[in-house]
Amino acid sequence: MKIPQYVIKAMNSLNHAGYECYLVGGCVRDTLMGNEPHDYDLTTSALPEQMLTVFNGCKIIETGLKHGTITLLTDGGPIEITTFRIDGEYKDNRRPENVIFTPKLSEDLARRDFTVNAIAMDKEGNLVDLYGGENDIRSKIIRCVGDPEKRFNEDGLRILRALRFASTLNFEIHPDTEKAIFKLTYLLKNISAERVREELFKLLCGVSAKAVLINYADVILPFLQPISREDLVQFAEIAEKLPLSAEIRMAALFALYSNTTKLKSAMQALKPSNKQIKSAENCCDIIQLPPTSPTQTALLIGQLGEKEFNLYLQTAKACGKDISATLQTVDDLKSRNACYNLHQLALTGADLIELGVKGKKVGDMLQTLFTAVAEGKVKNEKYQLLNYIKNQT
Ligand code: ATP
Ligand code: MG
Predict the structure, then answer these.
(1) Ligand 2 centroid to 80 CA: how many Å?
(2) Second CATH level (architecture) for the domain 1-139
(3) Averaged pLDDT for residues 184-201
(4) So what's the pLDDT on residue 95?
(5) Residue 291 phi, psi (nearest 5)
(6) For residue range 113-142, what is the model confidence (pLDDT) as tens digits?
(7) Could you give the CA distance from residue 182 to residue 113 in angstroms, rounded to a whole number?
(8) Which residues contact 146 (CB under 8 A, 6 or more apart)?
(9) What pLDDT digit, counting tens, does each position of 259-314 carry?
């Protein structure tokens, strides 16, 4: 097991100051699975103020300090370091109200959600695995640390996290954990939209999204209203073939079984960025009705950019739509050197004003020219465009 040097350096700093320090969570799990971790989290016996002393003079972000977390900014990348802690009382199944720091690693591991996420590793690669996490990784099992019902009651989001890990890691959920998931699904109602979105979107993009969407449709459906159970199960068959983007997969689901307006409501409820909502809407529109008219196609390419337009078009194809007419239109547009937005016209608004065109007429005329070029009625050349206008008026 190869721990990057910048992480070893941070671990050494804490160890040399007399504190315990371990890698923990996703980075240990991923390493044991033979995958390269996307980031490294450390857990330590040093209290927040002690961490600040150890890393005095280093670049640090203190945003999570209240919960015992600092982010150390190193040349190799950021490292999150958290003091061993026990989560305090959970209000509304959301977040611990407060956290209690502890000198014991075992107590820190006990608060973690699943056995596969509760393994600690020191810098020599020795494991502290109190809940059989390594074994569960080998058997590809997601299992709560401790009593599943108690753990889900503490934090309902863990229900969705179990599904997320099953989907992204291609693991099965242990029968006891699964039983508690179905019994306590309602707890997800109390979880903030942002936390739900993060897990749901990762779930939708997992390698095993199909199995999870089918097996846990009842858990996921409340976030996909008004999609029916049957439709979600049918959608699962193609989900994994779609581009690796949650908003595109949401768009495909709603394009096939609902509509853009309902998609917008479902997306808004999960509070992603406006850009994500808009992308989903555009994608849904194209899947439902791939454009065929030259004007509409040119406008869409101009608005979305060619790369995004093609991605949505390929999504439409993966959803079983016939996109041959659109592809033909795109070919035609290219062969006649059409433009994709008004700014690409060889005649500008300034040219028209110079010719004496005034006010709103300038915009109208540019639009007329754009449509004419897209439809192949005139070439996108200044002289030809001028002639076209003269003949029109
Ligand atoms: P990823 O590779 O997706 O980042 P991860 O396992 O690192 O996976 P995070 O959400 O980054 O997942 O959380 C880091 C660790 O913190 C987890 O591995 C787990 O030990 C613990 N953890 C995170 N969220 C919870 C939670 N809601 N309840 C209990 N433990 C949690
Ligand atoms: Mg992580």
Answers:
(1) 9
(2) 2-Layer Sandwich (3.30)
(3) 96
(4) 64
(5) -70, 145
(6) 999 999 999 999 999 999 999 999 999 999
(7) 17
(8) 110
(9) 999 999 999 999 999 999 999 999 999 999 999 999 899 989 988 989 999 999 99
Among all chains, which residue has been given the structure tokens 């707890």? 187
Cα 24 versus chain centre, distance: 23
C-alpha distances in Å from residue 213, one per residue of 143, 177, 216, 221, 239 = 19, 17, 6, 9, 9
Mean pLDDT of the chain: 94
Pick the CATH number of 140-271 from 3.90.550.10, 3.40.50.1220, 1.10.3090.10, 3.20.20.70: 1.10.3090.10
C-alpha pair distances (Å), 108 with each of 15, 39, 105, 119, 289:
18, 19, 5, 10, 53
Residue nearest to atom 25 of ligand 1 (CA): 113
**Ligand 1 atom having least distance to the Cα of 158:** 27
- Ligand whose nearest atom lies closest to the CA of 160: 1
User: Which residue has its alpha carbon closest to ligand 1 atom 24?
Assistant: 113
Question: Does the beta carbon of 87 sit less than 6 angstroms from any atom of ligand 1?
Answer: no
What separation in Å is there between the alpha carbon of 112 and the centre of ligand 1?
7
Cα(336) to centroid(ligand 1), Å:
54
The pocket of ion ligand 2, defined by CB under 5 A, consists of 26
For residue 37, the ligand 1 atom closest to its alpha carbon is 2
Question: What is the reported pTM?
Answer: 0.91
158 pocket-lining for ligand 1 (C-beta < 6 Å): yes
CA 156: distance to chain centroid? 20
Sequence spans of domains, the chain: 1-139, 140-271, 342-392
Separation of CA 99 and ligand 2 centre (Å)? 19
Q: Are 311 and 248 in contact (CB under 8 A)?
A: yes
The pLDDT value recorded for residue 87 is 83
